[in-house]
Amino acid sequence: MQKTLKQHYLWIIFAIAVLAQLFFPISMVAEKNDIIKNGAEFKIRTQPIDPADPLRGRYVAINMTVNVPEAAKDEVAYWGTNYLHLTTGTDGFAEVVAISKHPIPEKNVVKLENVYIFENGDLRLPYDRYYMQEKAAPKAERAFFGAQEDTYVTLRVKKGMGVISGLYIGDVAIEEYVRGEGDW
Asked: Which of 12, 86, 127, 137 could share a disulfide with 58, CB 3.0–4.6 Å?
């Protein structure tokens, strides 16, 4: 009787450990999907960069920056947490309304760590990869790198987090852009 009770508890502990290991990855994926479905969308201009990382899967490497207004630069915490409030500008692209070391109660805020503002006032965003189908990614990367101008991503923002939801050359999604280059 004593042994069976002990075995019973061991099985319960084992089941809890298995469920915990499943819960965390599933919750992370669900959170990203929720942001893509329900987050505010912003277009942000990009610059292609040439990646060399075989361990992270197939993706298109990008460099995203937004310009920080002169008045907001004094609020930047270069080593620490920043809250970046975004809005859509008249040109349809994201603009920085404010940046703060303290949480901003606005809806369209992205939480960033350890930021750097370049001399021209641009702040590099930490979203630097657009993942896609393995066969299509090399073609997309070549097309994106070749375009060099008029490229942008759509970034969905919700509760301080951001997720890249699309990559575009002109106004054409990268998946559609490379589709004409053959089957993938």
From this structure: 137
| Low pLDDT (below 50) residues in the chain | 50, 52, 182-184
The total of structural domains in the chain comes to 2
Q: Which domain holds residue 13?
A: 1-38
Beta-strand relationship, 94-100 and 109-113: unpaired
Q: Which 3-state string (H, E, C) describes 107-154? A: CCEEEEECCCECCCCEEECCCCEEECCCCCHHHHHHHHHHHCCCEEEE
Same domain, 79 and 126: yes
Q: How confident is the model at residue 182, as a pLDDT? A: 43
Q: For 22-35, how does the pLDDT look when each residue is reduced to its tens digit (9 = 90+)?
A: 888 888 888 888 88
